[in-house]
Amino acid sequence: MATENLSSALRAPAASRPYAKAVHGYGKRSTPHQHPPRADDFRLLPERERYIAGYVDRLPEGGAMDVKSLARALPLYGQMAVGTALRALGVAGHLRRVRCQVVDGGRSRWVTRTFWSRTARDGEWWDAFTMAEDHRATQAADTTSPSLGSAAAVADPAEADIPTPAAPPRPATVPAVPRQRNSEPAEPDPSPAYLALARLGRIEPRLALSAADCTALEGPAAAWLDRGVNTDYLTRALVSGLPAEVGSPVGLVRRRLTDKIPPRLPATRAPAASAAPVRRVLMECTGCGAPGPSEALPDGLCRACRTAAPGSTQAAPAEVPAARDVQALVSGLRDLLRAP
User: What span, in angstroms and rounded, lies between the C-alpha atoms of 24 and 66?
Assistant: First the structure.
């Protein structure tokens, strides 16, 4: 015979439904420097916005707060109502959607992150916050380079206790033979201008120069290179348009080096850096999701969404033409058909 449990102990309450978690790296992100939660945090908001703001404020970090997830968790309102409420919370200064550039494994992609503030913030605060996030994202992208990653792998603390093997003994080096007193000093490497003159005889036999000729003409040839031309340009200028017979190669080369020297061009300036730096963080419209700089999205809304928001000035609807009397129109058409 089954006996009924008459224990006076209270039953454990049913477990509450867990909050939906977003994909890792997405979901709710709380802004810093917020005041502690109070019962009257959102008292100035309408009832629907106050209800949804209270739920979003209780969400943990990384909780899903997109329109579909909120509409699924809040049975009182559908997706359209939740979307309108989130847009109103953005205008009130509690919500911003930010598009960030994430570099992972050499690949770059843009992700949308939602930042929540229990304390209502104005547009200037959100602009400064977006700039700080952009600076932080830029530093994170710079520190994830392959060279830094390999250095970090070497400095693994798990390998700190591994003893470093002793380096093998270095072989004894043979002492260098001192230079004899009667040995000749090493000749310096020839300059590019000297080499260009020395190769003229191999390119054009009529301009074969001796070592003394190359040394004498090295200065005028170096003046060409100082004006920004290369050795190929110098060689083509000296060997082009030669007469059938060249009586004095050194005289002809000296004359051409003097008469055909190129003009001196002004130094080219490096292009000025772009005034607008590359941004890795962009604000996103709370209504339609259009990205843009924070200064172009006041209250978190683009121009189209601000115009279409409730209470904004809209164009007057076009007047609907009055309905026609169908019977009178048909009778008139019949009269026209009967007429001869």
Answer: 14
Q: Please check whether residues 32 and 137 belong to one and the same domain.
A: yes
Q: Tell me the pLDDT band of 7, cut-offs 50, 70 and 90.
A: very low
Alpha helices per DSSP H over 74-118: 79-92
The identity of residue 243, as a single letter, is: P
Asked whether residue 139 is domain-assigned, the answer is yes
Q: How many domains does the chain have?
A: 2
- Please tell me the total number of residues recorded for the chain in this structure: 340
What's the pLDDT at 184? 55
Spatial distance between the Cα atoms of 248 and 266, rounded to a whole number of angstroms = 35
Asked if residue 111 belongs to a domain, the reply is yes
Q: Per residue in 177-194, pLDDT tens?
A: 445 455 555 567 889 989
Query: How far is residue 107 CA from its own chain's centroid?
Result: 12
Both tokens assigned to 300: 């978190």
Q: Which of 300, 283, 279 is nearest to 134 (CA)?
A: 279
What is the model's pLDDT at position 80?
92
Residue carrying structure tokens 């048909």: 330
Alpha-carbon distances, residue 318 vs 30, 199, 243, 315, 322 (angstroms): 45, 86, 88, 9, 12
* Burial of residue 13, with CB atoms counted within 10 A of its CB: 0-12 exposed, 13-18 middle, 19 or more buried: exposed
Which 8-state DSSP code applies to residue 106? Answer: T
Q: What is the percent of the chain with per-residue pLDDT over 70, rounded to a whole number?
A: 69
Q: Kindly tell me if the per-residue pLDDT of 162 is higher than 50.
A: no
Span 251-257, mean pLDDT?
Answer: 91
Residues with Cβ < 8 Å from 177, sequence gap 6 or more? none
Q: What is the pTM of this model?
A: 0.48
- The DSSP output letter for 228 is T
| CATH assignment of the domain containing 140 | 1.10.10
Extended strands (E) in 183-323: 281-284, 291-292
Residue 128: which domain range? Answer: 28-145
- Tell me the H-state helices in 240-325: 249-259, 303-308
Q: Which of 88, 99, 48 is nearest to 299 (CA)?
A: 88
In the block, tokens 């026609």 appear at 324
